[in-house]
Amino acid sequence: YHMKVEAEAVQTLLNCRDDHNIKDFDQFHFSPRNVPYRHMPCYILKMFDELGFIRYYRIKRTTLARFILFVKKGYRDAPYHNWIHAFSVAHFGYLMIKNFNLVKDGYMTQLHALVFLVSCLCHDIDHRGTNNSFQTKCGTVLASLYSSEGSVMERHHLAQSMCILNTDGCNIFEGLTSEEYSEALDILRNNILSTDLASHFRAAENQREMIDQGYDKNDPKHQKLLHAMLMTCCDLSDQTKHWRITKKTAEQIYDEFFSQGDLEKSMGTAPIEMMDRERASIPDLQVQFITNLVLPLFSNLAALFPAAQILVDVIMKNREIWKMAKNVFQTYSETGVKCMDILL
Ligand SMILES: Cc1nc2ccc(C(=O)NCC(C)C)cc2n2c(-c3cc(OC(C)(C)C)ccc3Cl)nnc12
Ligand SMILES: [Mg+2]
Ligand SMILES: [Zn+2]
């Protein structure tokens, strides 16, 4: 089947005016999830423009507009892994490029930054709301394609992204030289594959060592570790926002997890506790996730970019609320009320 993007949709996107100029769009406290859904493609276009990618790489605006609309169409309507998630991940990538001066201070070339933003936008394309172990356990088509290499979903997200780049009128990299092009695809691949949890755990130790040694801007291994770290930060950026966003994200994630758990039960296999709506305690799981994954990651980021310390502070504050929620949940769950609405 071939996805189609109507010509008038491309035209509408190209005409999107500067008039919806939201305040603080380039600040870390800004929540991209508050941008009106219909304006999101326009804000992606504006980010590419503002970061100078369109000029620098002679990207045709119609090509970029069509690419953005194809990527948006490539996302499914999953509770969490949908276009809004992709938009918020790309927005955080834009925030880091801008607020950490990643290109100006030599952490990335302009090409790396362009590919980084594209990677954020595409990193979960065609996600079905089920994770890698579900693919292998149920022997899905994607598992038959990729399970021998691992990172099943991420390899699919990469394949879908390549497919869009190879679609007529969507190749935003067509203006690159041949060596720039092959470097771009190499970085796109590494970036998207680094959003697999399993590869994050493997890389986390090396990232800590890299920071302790001191980041070497000319070391290709350091560059690759940095890209992976920044991709994971973007993927988890909802954790750096106000409690209301963090709570809503958790609701969407466990909506997805519990649906996978229901599916596994209906197929006769027992889901892990995190995906079992009968057993999971969301506040407990979130305190663990923040403690074991989110905080160490953003602490590494703040070690490299001191401006990220405010993000660590927000994450710790949100974890405190989850800890209070644990008690509230305990009292209420005795009375049978087991839902997130009881949280403020
Ligand atoms: C709020 C929040 N809670 C989560 C709770 C649990 C898990 C989970 O999968 N636990 C499995 C065990 C083995 C650790 C993920 C969660 N999660 C993610 C997420 C991150 C991902 O991968 C990177 C970005 C590389 C870490 C990939 C997929 C997802 Cl859904 N995004 N937000 C969340
Ligand atoms: Mg993913
Ligand atoms: Zn993601």
Topology:
Elements: H1 7-14, H2 40-50, H3 53-56, H4 61-74, H5 83-99, H6 110-122, H7 132-138, H8 141-146, H9 152-165, H10 178-193, H11 197-213, H12 220-235, H13 243-266, H14 282-304, H15 309-334
Helix pairs in contact: 1-4, 2-5, 4-9, 5-6, 5-12, 6-10, 9-10, 10-12, 11-12, 11-14, 12-14, 14-15
This protein binds ligand EPV, magnesium ion and zinc ion (ZN).
Zinc ion binds at residues 85, 89, 123-124, 195, 235.
Residues in helix, %: 55-70%
The amount of beta strand, in percent, is under 5%
Residue windows where pLDDT falls under 50 for at least 5 positions: none
Mass-distribution shape: globular
Largest sheet: none
Kindly name the structural category. Answer: mainly alpha
> Gyration radius, to the nearest Å?
20 Å
* SSE arrangement, N to C: HHHHHHHHHHHHHHH
Tell how many strands the DSSP assignment holds: 0
Overall pLDDT: 95
Attached small molecules? ligand EPV, magnesium ion, zinc ion
What tags apply to this protein structure?
344 residues; 15 helices; 0% strand; globular; binds the ligand Cc1nc2ccc(C(=O)NCC(C)C)cc2n2c(-c3cc(OC(C)(C)C)ccc3Cl)nnc12; binds zinc ion
